Amino acid sequence: MISVTIDGPAGSGKSTISKIISKKLGFVHLDTGALYRAVACFIKKSNIDFENENDVKKCLKDINLKIKKVGNEQRILLNEKDLKNELRSLDITKIASKIAAYQSVRDYLLNFQRDFAKFQNVVMDGRDIGTVVLPQASVKIFITASPEVRAKRRLEQILKNGENFDYLEILDSIKKRDYEDTHRKIAPLKKADDAILIDNSDMNLSQSVESILSIIKEKVDNI
Fold first, then answer.
1. Is residue 58 part of a domain?
2. For helices 14-25 and 205-219, angle between their N-to-C axes, nearest 10 degrees
3. Which residues constitute the domain of residue 200?
4. pLDDT in tens, 130-142
């Protein structure tokens, strides 16, 4: 099967871009960051201390994640509940960032992600897909943008969800997330040696999509 990995930091647009590309190619999309956010939702709703890895590890047995296709979208179900409107708050982002550094959580989600790519053509985005989850992927992309551009994008996304946060607060959160993701001991955010780097700070969405599509078509025959 053909697998395309798109890694990058928070706010780089990897999830939105991956959705569009998967639709254009007729592939299935998996936003792996949303899986961590789904676990974070369970932790928040269950009042579990997310700073305590042992408490988080114990709760994993009570979590059942599924992927459901609704129209052209892949939705994540947490214990049969659709989480579409609950995954992008700053609170969930904070918890997801913390638990993503726990080996128990990464192990819990690793097989789920790999199994997803075994029997279907996929576009999978995250932070360690090209380096850890699918190291033999057909095409690997690493996208990034300046923290300021990414903070602006994230603010626009939050406003669409009916929330309101200060731009500088989001920028600070983005910078902290970058540091945590790149400095954690387990599966840190980094570009795979064979990944193609794209800085889309000065690109709009269409330009980013077309740039990546051209790379995929160049590397994979008969797409």
1. yes
2. 50
3. 3-213
4. 999 999 999 999 9
| pTM of the entire predicted model | 0.85
> Who contacts 36 (Cβ-Cβ below 8 Å, separation ≥6)?
96, 99, 100, 105, 109
Instruction: Work out how many domains the chain is built from and give that number.
Output: 1
Strands (E), the chain: 3-7, 28-31, 65-70, 73-78, 81-82, 122-126, 139-144, 196-199
> Is 222 part of a structural domain of the chain?
no
State the residue for tokens 């994993």.
Answer: 60
99: left (phi over 0), alpha (psi -120 to 50) or beta: alpha
Q: Smallest Cα–Cα separation from 191: which of 150, 140, 123, 142?
A: 142
At residue 76, the 3 state secondary structure works out as strand
d(CA 52, CA 147): 29
Q: Is residue 150 included in any domain, yes or no?
A: yes
Residue bearing tokens 């047995």: 61
Residue ranges for the chain with pLDDT beneath 50: none
CATH number, domain of 56, equals 3.40.50.300
| Neighbour-count burial of 14, counting CB atoms closer than 10 A to its CB (0-12 exposed, 13-18 middle, 19+ buried) | buried
Q: How far apart are CA 162 and CA 178, in angstroms?
A: 25
Nearest to 154 by CA among 15, 43, 57: 15
